[in-house]
């Protein structure tokens, strides 16, 4: 018996072909629709593939970048403490600002941020993967030359050049990572990278302690070995990094074609408006026409003082607890290590919840509390444990806001050139506030340094207010935009490919 369906098909071949054609058309339309949805959404489409891709970036990029930054922190962090009165402050100050004055008071502070923007923007033009090792090679060379100095003037001059070449390093690393990771993946990666700085501060104390025990007739002072070791290792690693770092995800040799395509898509919808956009200086500088830019920079200023006070003067602060200069280095290890742990906890939490400003405010609150407690202690001998605990709070509260603030404004700028322009001014601006730190920690105020501690705490309190106000403005502006459009969108719902013009775009939503 013949199947009626087969019989029908055989009798009406044209109808069967039409059905097949319609089915094929429907399938094609569905495929086109699916691709359109993929292209128009910032949501993760294939979570397993993206996790695998991120793991490759994590293992291939982060260890190398973290090691580079560790050398960066070591090279600028180790300074002999046995200078004449006022000379330590001068050397720290010259790292932030080229002097044209004979006193620690600076007549032209704006020159301190002169090197970072042009070097960073040059890095955008030739590629961060090439510029970062070049900068590292130079600051390694200057560190090595410090070992050959015989007077204060020599160290002073080398610190000038060291500060110049290192000024663009962190802004370029941040930008480089934004070309590999989504916005809600960035903070934890920057935290791992930045934790290298905290570990370097701890390690520099251990390294200095060990090197100072070296007894050798090859050098007149044992501290020279410190700079010989650090400078040599920095130069060697810079050469390796030059050939190792990929220019972009699309040119990474460790990715296959499908992974390269996915990497490009991720950045197109959740980081940049145009991936690997050709650098245009005029367009990049348009970022400084946005009012929000100055809100971010104001928070950077507030952050800079507590950040630099802890980074540069923690040994001096701890000297109030420990009198032995050599042991001071050892007592800075634990606060720096726990600071790195605090940074990782806050950054991972921020990425998970996709919010920035509450965690930045929390960091400011911790540092403010730590400095106030330490300043309020009159008798350290009687309250030794509380005093030492306050130094832990200082480190807990300074590392996280630095990472999260940089992440925050990078998350809100889709134009690659503008993103780097803002970062190349914001990060050095925070470093510039090391001028305040280097001039309020005065010799005559030791060992308590009460004016310095109160000044630093005040900046922390102001940072809490400024970051909170900016964050609340973004929350209310997002709600206002949703009301006008009659929708309920957040930053995660809008692809960055639409956001080249920032807040001018109706669909723009702040990444709070």
UniProtKB/TrEMBL annotation:
Transmembrane segments: 131-150, 156-178, 190-212, 224-245, 294-318, 330-348, 355-377, 389-408, 420-441, 453-476
Domain Major facilitator superfamily (MFS) profile positions: 61-481
Localization terms from the record: Membrane
Tree of life domain: Eukaryota
Membrane topology: Multi-pass membrane protein
InterPro entries: MFS, MFS_dom, MFS_trans_sf
Chain residue ranges for the region called Disordered: 1-23
Biased segments, Polar residues type: 1-14
Gene Ontology cellular component annotations, sorted alphabetically: membrane
Presence of keyword NAD: no
GO MF term set: transmembrane transporter activity
Entry keywords, A to Z: Membrane, Transmembrane, Transmembrane helix, Transport
One Pfam family in the UniProt entry: MFS_1
PANTHER family: PERMEASE-RELATED (PTHR43791), TRANSPORTER, PUTATIVE (AFU_ORTHOLOGUE AFUA_2G00840)-RELATED (PTHR43791:SF50)
Stated name of the protein: Major facilitator superfamily (MFS) profile domain-containing protein
């Amino acid at each position: 018996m013949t199947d009626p369906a087969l019989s029908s098909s055989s009798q009406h071949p044209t109808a069967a072909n039409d059905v097949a054609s319609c089915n094929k058309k429907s399938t094609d339309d569905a495929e086109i629709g699916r691709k359109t949805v993929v292209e128009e959404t910032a949501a993760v489409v294939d979570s397993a593939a993206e996790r695998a891709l991120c793991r490759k970036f994590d293992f291939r990029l982060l260890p190398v970048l973290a090691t580079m930054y560790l050398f960066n922190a070591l090279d600028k962090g180790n300074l002999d403490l046995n200078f004449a009165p006022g000379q330590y402050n001068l050397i720290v100050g010259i790292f932030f600002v080229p002097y044209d004055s004979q006193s620690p008071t600076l007549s032209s502070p704006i020159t301190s941020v002169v090197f970072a923007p042009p070097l960073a923007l040059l890095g955008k033009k030739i590629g961060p993967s090439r510029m970062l090792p070049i900068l590292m090679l130079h600051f390694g060379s200057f560190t090595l030359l410090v070992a050959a100095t015989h007077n204060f003037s020599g160290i002073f001059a080398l610190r000038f050049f060291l500060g110049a070449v290192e000024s663009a390093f962190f802004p370029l690393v941040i930008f480089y990572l934004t070309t590999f990771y989504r916005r809600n993946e960035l903070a934890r990666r920057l935290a791992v990278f930045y934790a290298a700085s905290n570990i370097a501060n701890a390690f520099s104390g251990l390294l200095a302690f060990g090197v100072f025990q070296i007894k050798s007739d090859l050098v007149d002072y044992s501290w020279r070995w410190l700079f010989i070791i650090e400078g040599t290792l920095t130069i060697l690693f810079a050469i390796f990094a030059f050939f190792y770092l990929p220019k972009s995800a699309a040119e990474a040799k460790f990715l296959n074609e499908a992974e390269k395509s996915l990497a490009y898509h991720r950045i197109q919808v959740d980081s940049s408006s145009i991936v690997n956009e050709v650098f245009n200086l005029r367009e990049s500088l348009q970022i400084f026409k946005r009012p929000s830019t100055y809100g971010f920079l104001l928070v950077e200023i507030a952050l800079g003082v507590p950040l630099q006070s802890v980074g540069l003067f923690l040994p001096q602060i701890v000297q109030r607890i420990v009198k032995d200069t050599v042991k001071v280095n050892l007592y800075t290890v634990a606060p720096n290590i726990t600071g790195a742990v605090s940074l990782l906890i806050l950054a991972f939490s921020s990425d998970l919840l996709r919010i920035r400003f509450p965690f930045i405010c929390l960091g400011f609150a911790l540092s403010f509390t730590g400095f106030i407690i330490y300043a309020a202690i009159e008798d350290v001998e009687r309250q030794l444990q509380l005093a030492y605990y306050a130094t832990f709070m200082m480190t807990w509260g300074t590392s996280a806001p630095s990472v999260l603030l940089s992440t925050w404004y990078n998350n809100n700028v889709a134009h690659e050139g503008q993103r780097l322009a803002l970062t190349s001014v914001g990060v050095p601006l925070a470093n510039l506030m090391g001028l305040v730190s280097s001039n309020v920690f005065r010799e005559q105020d030791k060992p308590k340094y009460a004016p310095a501690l109160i000044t630093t705490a005040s900046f922390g309190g102001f940072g809490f207010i400024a970051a909170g106000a900016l964050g609340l403005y973004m929350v209310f502006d997002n709600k206002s935009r949703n009301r006008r459009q009659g929708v309920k969108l957040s930053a995660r719902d809008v692809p960055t490919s639409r956001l080249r013009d920032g807040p001018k775009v109706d669909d723009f939503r702040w990444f709070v």
